Recover the amino acids of this structure.
């Protein structure tokens, strides 16, 4: 097959979701799937290990799956950090715009949040079944939910948390890419701010349970606030990357 | 389809460093342009602005009549391969699949042939490849993208000699079949000058000269023969380069020879050749001379 040199689609409009970009993103996402599968299998093995060790040395007093909550959040953070910092150069070099890259990062964050929250909920569901059969409790601390059996809240918290951690990871990656090591480090309080705000709203970690003890917001308001934080994060990501120079590859 | 380039008063600064300083340049569509310049002369900065890899500090850049920065149509039709290429650290096969998916003018058959000819290891990541293999991957992406504006910034320097000559052959063959605007930046001037139809020389961020390659070659002449005969013929001409081997001398002189001078040189037993672009380049950029 030989393709004649043809004119690229004459579309100067600001369509963020170029079909070519979507095709490329689908392929990139496919390569991420392998990493995701490896991660969740590893998490499952660790959870089984925690249960086995706990049973040997004492009694199971609460959810084992819950120990891995931070791993789930920070893994999504790291994935989006590397996708952003490592992806923008090749992406623009393939003839795609920074604007469509940011759009696809946003989609990547959304897909990651959907998949990870589903996997996280599945983990709790499996644990619930196993622990119920043995009469073990599945209680948790510092979450929207008090017990792993509250699957609706489990899903909601994981979805919101991964959305924010992914957004924050993308912001950190963009800051290091655009500004280099010094600026990337100096801006960490800003790029990690979404995580701090969200954890305080969701779980009371980081800077205290602002929502319940301070602002006393109902859950829907907290959820909406977190979604606004994510949206704001994506706007900032666009502002950081929209005129970013593509760094020279190492030879 | 070929993209032409118009650059007016282009300046690019990195902090206090001025990489390009008021560059004016026209690259005609459908030709192979050589972009020459010493290290730090601004070649990569110029190509990066044309490919929308970085914004200009000031000035006007038009590719096919439009500003290329964040322009989906122009960026889709422009391919810049810098050194070993900008690739995700994924297997070469995945890089080529993504290029095929996003490049509207991608030629899979050409890509496959180049992969075989340049021996690109498809199951390795760039981080697992030698510099030559990374260069080969960059060349495959650059040529098979068949972009209306294709720019190769020293992207084949890591290739060994047989692979470089294979690349030159493939570039010329594909260009003949699918004419487009190609810009080749290189230090290996002697090797690549046969490719060039137009030549641009950058020096300290400014355009030192931009002309047809043939016109540049006619700017001087190479005289080869017995040293004393050559010296007698020089008669005050400016010498760009002189090489001697025993009694034989080869001298590159600035300025063309008219018919009478050519006849006189031949009668004296001298061989006359065109000026090698490399000699002209070295002379102009070493002395900072202006044409």
């Amino acid at each position: 097959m030989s393709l004649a040199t043809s004119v690229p689609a004459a579309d100067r409009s600001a369509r963020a979701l170029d079909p070519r970009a979507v095709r490329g993103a689908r392929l990139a996402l496919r390569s991420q799937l392998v990493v995701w599968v490896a991660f969740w299998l590893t998490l499952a093995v660790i959870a089984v290990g925690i249960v086995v060790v706990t049973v040997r040395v004492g009694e199971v007093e609460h959810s084992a799956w819950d120990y891995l909550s931070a791993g789930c959040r920070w893994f999504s953070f790291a994935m989006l950090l590397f996708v952003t910092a490592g992806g923008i150069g090749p992406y623009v070099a393939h003839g795609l715009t920074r604007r469509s890259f940011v759009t696809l990062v946003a989609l990547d964050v959304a897909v990651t949040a959907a998949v990870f929250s589903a996997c996280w909920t599945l983990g709790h569901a499996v644990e619930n079944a196993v622990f119920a059969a043995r009469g073990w409790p599945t209680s948790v601390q510092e979450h929207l939910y008090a017990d792993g059996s509250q699957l609706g809240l489990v899903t909601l918290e994981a979805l919101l948390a991964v959305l924010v951690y992914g957004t924050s990871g993308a912001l950190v990656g963009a800051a290091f890419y655009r500004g280099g090591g010094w600026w990337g480090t100096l801006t960490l309080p800003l790029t990690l701010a979404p995580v701090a705000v969200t954890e305080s709203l969701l779980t009371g970690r980081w800077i205290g349970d602002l929502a319940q003890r301070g602002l006393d917001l109902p859950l829907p308001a907290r959820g909406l606030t977190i979604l606004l934080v994510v949206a704001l994060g994506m706007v900032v990501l666009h502002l950081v990357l929209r005129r970013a120079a593509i760094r020279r590859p190492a030879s | 389809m070929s993209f032409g380039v118009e650059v007016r008063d282009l300046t690019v600064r990195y902090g206090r460093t001025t990489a390009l300083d008021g560059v004016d340049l026209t690259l005609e569509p459908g030709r192979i342009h050589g972009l020459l310049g010493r290290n730090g002369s601004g070649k990569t900065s110029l190509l990066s602005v044309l490919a929308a890899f970085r914004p200009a500090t000031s000035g006007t850049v038009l590719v096919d009549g439009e500003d290329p920065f964040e322009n989906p149509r122009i960026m889709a039709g422009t391919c810049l391969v810098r050194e070993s290429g900008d690739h995700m650290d994924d297997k070469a096969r995945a890089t080529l699949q993504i290029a095929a998916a996003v490049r509207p003018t991608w030629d899979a058959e050409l890509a496959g042939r180049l992969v075989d000819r340049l021996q690109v290891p498809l199951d390795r990541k760039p981080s697992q490849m030698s510099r030559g293999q990374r260069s080969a991957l960059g060349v495959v992406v650059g040529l098979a993208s068949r972009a209306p504006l294709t720019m190769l910034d020293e992207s084949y320097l890591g290739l060994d000699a047989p692979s470089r000559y294979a690349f030159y052959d493939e570039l010329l063959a594909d260009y003949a079949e699918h004419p487009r605007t190609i810009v080749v930046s290189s230090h290996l001037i002697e090797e690549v000058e046969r490719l060039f139809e137009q030549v641009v020389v950058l020096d300290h961020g400014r355009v030192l000269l931009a002309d047809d390659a043939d016109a540049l070659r006619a700017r001087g002449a190479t005289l080869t023969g017995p040293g004393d005969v050559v010296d007698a013929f020089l008669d005050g001409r400016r010498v760009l380069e002189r090489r001697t081997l025993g009694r034989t001398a080869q001298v590159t002189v600035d300025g063309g020879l008219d018919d009478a001078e050519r006849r006189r040189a031949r009668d004296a037993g001298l061989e006359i050749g065109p000026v090698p672009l490399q000699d002209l380049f070295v002379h102009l950029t070493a002395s900072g001379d202006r044409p």
Observations:
- Chain B has two domains: 5-215, 220-274.
- Chain B is about 35% helix and 30% strand.
